[in-house]
Amino acid sequence: MPTPVQSWTPSSWREHDARQQPTYENEDELQDVLGHLRTLPPLITSWEVENLKAELARAANGERFVLQGGDCAESFADCTADVITSRLKIMLQTSLILTYGLNKRVVRVGRFAGQYAKPRSSDTETQDGTTLPSYRGDIINDPAFTKEARRPDPQRLKRAYMKSGLTLNLVRSLVEGGFADLRHPEYWDLDFMQHSPLADEYHAIVESIEDTLSFLDVVAGRRADSMDRVTFYTSHEALLLPYEEALTRTVPHNQGAYNLGTHFPWIGKRTNQLDGAHVEYMRGIANPLGLKVGPDMTREKLVSLVRHLDPEKEPGRLTLITRFGADEIGERLPPLLHAVQATGHPVLWICDPMHGNTEKTNGGIKTRRFANILGELEQAFDIHKAEDSMLGGVHFELTGENVTECIGGARGLQEADLERAYKSHVDPRLNYEQTLEMAFSVVRKARNGGLDV
């Protein structure tokens, strides 16, 4: 069983079963890299972490709504201005739509600047009779199917740190520069809406937002700039534990140890063992934590994890990110809600309608159906409302690029369209127009009285 909190150290996870970790050929090289990472400046600050924790506590009380989104797995090659800018653009625009529709401030949490590791269902992959290690994200190896590319390389940890820092630098510059401004229609790529039967309603919402901003400008007697400058937080799955440990630091004037490689780390469903290394590491850091909750989660296990990860019942400390699938959420979510409510822990509930709705086409292409993603999200709102609970956010895998990875949406993408612009090496993402349509659908549900906001 887990040891007391007082005995925790950033390296105490090493005494536990660590799943989803690569095997490095040269342990000395790995230790040299980790030692170098420990000397580098942190990527974020402890006061940013504490600010996010306070915002998440407000979301759990219904005063905020969380938008967590980004790539399923970042790639080093996509650390470019165009890709980062398009990703940030869709996150900002989606958050503004949700702010308008839900009448709440939105907390923006990106799945980037560190989302370079991915869990895999198998340690190996076989193609044409050749078996190689699975691709585990750019922080570990390369997706190319060669022996050298799939070899876990410690030097990639340095590259992940560098790419994360470059991403953060551009994001911080953009959000300070008015990139969220809705007054410029050229920032909005809304051509896809002409294909939707809800086109008129969508355009009416956008025009209403623009009219509201113009009204605020007139009343204030000056331009209302508060919508141009926003706060942005980062998140990633804390999967590669040696890397996470190397970025864990103590800071002056604050108690405890912080993971200063990300504001909001989370535990995935494959590494949520109560006595496992990932839970051991996460229980001791001062960051707010996320915990993925899937259809195999029992009430007893969830209650134990909640109590272990948040022993002090600290507001903003723990976020439960549910991922059941449209067909299972109605059966799986209510009993877990009841079990956690009975503990009295002030958790924040977020719906991830992506991962539980993954499927493969007859041709073997991994995809997700827009209708199922929206269906799970709408059910989540309805279930929380019926159970006197609060759904405080959404978790999307998305991109600002014009990819064709998910079926459906306003353009009615079909299976035959997937190969046209399928870029993801891991999981399918909502593209720009599908993400906006998802946000507008939530607004429509709120305007029609379907959400408890």
Automatic annotation (TrEMBL):
Biased composition (Polar residues): 1-12
Entry keyword annotation includes Manganese: yes
Gene3D superfamilies assigned: Aldolase class I
UniProt source species: Longibacter salinarum
Record's protein name: Phospho-2-dehydro-3-deoxyheptonate aldolase
Listed EC numbers: 2.5.1.54
Annotated keywords: Amino-acid biosynthesis, Aromatic amino acid biosynthesis, Cadmium, Cobalt, Manganese, Transferase
Catalytic activity: D-erythrose 4-phosphate + phosphoenolpyruvate + H2O = 7-phospho-2-dehydro-3-deoxy-D-arabino-heptonate + phosphate
InterPro entries reported in the protein's UniProt record: Aldolase_TIM, DAHP_synth_2
Residues that, per the record, bind Mn(2+): C72, H355, E397, D427
Cofactor: Mn(2+); Co(2+); Cd(2+)
GO molecular function: 3-deoxy-7-phosphoheptulonate synthase activity
PANTHER family (alphabetical): PHOSPHO-2-DEHYDRO-3-DEOXYHEPTONATE ALDOLASE, PHOSPHO-2-DEHYDRO-3-DEOXYHEPTONATE ALDOLASE 1, 2
